[in-house]
């Protein structure tokens, strides 16, 4: 169907994937492979193991030998480069005696853009708004196009730190779990902090209240987000 998952592959082509699961000395291991006519081959693995009953470590790695990546140039033109890309994630999960769950992860995105490459993209977008903020401009159209081809994707940079802390049923309030989530771009030092509260006391319903605090300088990932700080109330029904 047109308009759905068009970035995953090209029409009339076939992509194949395989996954092998292993259990080695209490360590869960997955080996993953994908290839096809419209996607370059890629290889991945992940693992998870418990060092103690309340302490788990996990990791992921991916390698793409021929990643097609669009790069913005100083003259606002672009070119497509093929490069080898290695990405990895390492994290830990710890449950304290007071029922506080801590998750901390470091993510390296080998196929992402450097701080200088992202800054060049944000400068292009700003120049487009300066040309014609109401009617748009050629530069703004160019920025929109590049945004859909990589620059506007989730975590487009190269290094991130993610953390999440939750407390189960504080003060003996049943079905109530408050927490806080933070993600930081370690290259431009911009970040997002999200405190939230989740209540599941109604059968098949989930209520989630969260506030997003976004901070960063000019031409940084979170400093240039379309939205600013926001308050959300999400209601989910399971059936």
Topology overview:
Blueprint: E1 15-24, E2 27-36, E3 42-52, E4 55-72, E5 78-95, E6 100-108, H1 115-131, H2 138-151, E7 159-167, E8 176-185, E9 191-199, E10 205-215, E11 230-237
Antiparallel strand pairs: 1-2, 2-3, 3-4, 4-5, 5-6, 6-7, 7-8, 8-9, 9-10, 10-11
Question: What does this 3D model show about the protein?
Answer:
The chain is mainly beta and 239 residues long. The chain has a single domain, classed as Porin (Beta Barrel), CATH 2.40.160. A hairpin with a 2-residue loop joins β3 and β4. α1 runs antiparallel to α2. The radius of gyration is 21 Å and the shape is globular. It starts with 14 loop residues before the first strand and ends with a strand. 10% of the residues are buried. The model has no long low-confidence stretch (mean pLDDT 90).
Largest sheet, if any? 11 strands, antiparallel
Report the C-alpha radius of gyration, rounded.
21 Å
The count of helical stretches stands at: 2
Q: Give the CATH architecture.
A: Beta Barrel
Uncertain runs with pLDDT below 50, 5 residues or more?
none
Structural class: mainly beta
Distance between the termini: 26 Å
Mean pLDDT: 90
The proportion of residues forming helix, as a percent range, comes to 10-25%
User: Order of strands in the sheet with the most strands?
Assistant: 1-2-3-4-5-6-7-8-9-10-11
How many individual β-strands? 11
Under CATH, the topology can be stated as Porin
Q: Domains counted in the coordinates: how many?
A: 1
Q: Which percent range describes the beta-strand content? A: over 45%
CATH class label: Mainly Beta
Order of helices and strands: EEEEEEHHEEEEE
Global shape: globular
